[in-house]
Amino acid sequence: MSSDPTWHDLRGRNFGSAGRSIAGTMRATVGDTTYVERFWHAPPGLWRTERDGTPRIIEGPARRFHRTPDGDMELQPDNSHTMWGGGHPSQLTEAFRMWEIGQHHEPLVEPEGPPCDVSVGGRDGWQVRIRDRRMGATADVTFDEKTGVVIALELLDGSMRLELLDFELDAQVPDETFTWTGPYTERPDEWRLRQEKLQRMTDLGLPTPTYWPTGFRVELSSGDPDTGTVTMNLAVDGGAQLTRWPAGTKSPQELDYGGYPHEVRWQDRGWKWCLRSGIQLTDDELGRFKESIPHQEPPAPVEARPGSDPTGGRGALVVFSDRINVAYGQFYIAEPGAFGEDMGNGFAGQRNGLCGTAEPGVAWFVTGLHTGTVALTVQVMSGAPDEVGDWEEAVEAPLTVRRSDGLELQEWGGDIVGDALPLSPGTYRVRYCATGMDTGHDMDTGEGPDRYLVTIWPATPEPDAVVRQTSQNAAYWHGAWN
Fold first, then answer.
1. 106 Cβ partners below 8 Å, 6+ apart?
2. What are the CA-CA distances from residue 314 to residues 311, 329, 381, 406 (Å)?
């Protein structure tokens, strides 16, 4: 190999690969999952990736398609922005984006030692241990000796390893590589829907404070006009963020993430508040800040009246019918952002232990299988369904929906599958049927034999009920929460 390069030399070689086409094969291990992915890239932003010959991502000059968890190719909205998650080839082929300089000219990624020579898949390379100041992560990065391309990236916490098995720099990639002519669905324009929601929130009036010790301006970050929940960024020294949500409901998910060293929470006239800031206010300053916030009455709670017909007059509508991933024997149906923090709260005061709806906007579901996939059908109806038929287990529970943008079917961990359930604000009843829970519990992991049916229809609230119970697993869960 050539004389030992410095960190500065390796970054320079890597920058030399920018703006060039590349094709190759990557092996990725992300968590417990390992896969091999073929990829083609042409600058500035054309991509195609495949696994086992099946296209996963096609980003062409005009249209972009991504394969969904359901297996469909989905056309992405024009104004959406692709954020590559862990395990995308660009994390290797465009690693030069990591070497950017921060706002104050400080390096955002720094080496923790000198380069050392290594071999990756028969290729000579130079490995450097780096620290990413933005993410707080440490990784081993390996540069190809000949081209400067990053051929391996491994996080030291063991959560991800990427490696190029082969690649061709300056590859000749035909234009048709980045086109898709097969069937596809269209993804909702989430950016436009969000802008419409923020405009509705603005039209209702914002609880904009008028005092800060050094002055400030306010920018609306997110909001829900149906509940009055709102988050505003305050342009002040050190940064600050003010969040409001209705008392008696869970705090918004954005408060689960850090970023500010100081936080204070309080409750006042039907609202809960959280101020997060880079600089701590004195008691007097905080008092003046609170007093400067105009009071707005919380929206009236959803009356105990049934929601509107979710089928649009069709009587019944199947929203999902496929296998779904479960972990810890769970999946969920919830309003966007309403995922509960404690599963026990979802079953508080209930008789049944399979479908928990004690918290508004969230339904928890228990399966016999611990980890793997189970068969699931979710349907909405205009009225109560027939008898439970030959299902081995059946429970029913009341559900309150507060928001107007539908509910999401979620796997464990929050991944969304299928289309949104078209449920408007109001009250509903959920029937959850199951067969094979004991067999699924005994199998524990894999492609479970147990199957499930969720049916939801408008109804006045009534206590939950165990309609039928035959398995030992269901009997256990009926007594587990109380």
1. 133
2. 5, 33, 8, 18
Residues shown for the chain? 482
Cα–Cα distance measured from residue 58 to residue 36, given in angstroms and rounded to the nearest whole number: 17
Dmax (CA) of the chain: 78
Class of the domain covering 7-186: mainly beta
Which tokens hold the place of 42? 């042409």
Give residue 102's pLDDT.
41
Same topology for domains 7-186 and 316-478, yes or no?
Answer: no
Q: What is the pTM of this model?
A: 0.48
CATH of domain 316-478: 2.60.34.30
Ranges of the chain with pLDDT below 70: 1-2, 79-86, 100-107, 133-135, 189-191, 248, 258, 300-303, 337-341, 482
Domain ranges of the chain: 7-186, 191-291, 316-478
- Exposure pattern of 16-46 as b/e (b: 16+ CB <10 Å)? ebeeebbbbebebbbeeeeeebbbbbbeeeb
The encoded tokens of residue 428 equal 């509903």
**What is residue 16's predicted lDDT score, i.e. its pLDDT?**
86
Six-digit token string for 136: 């707080």
* pLDDT for 168: 94
Query: Could you tell me the two tokens for 128?
Result: 């450097």
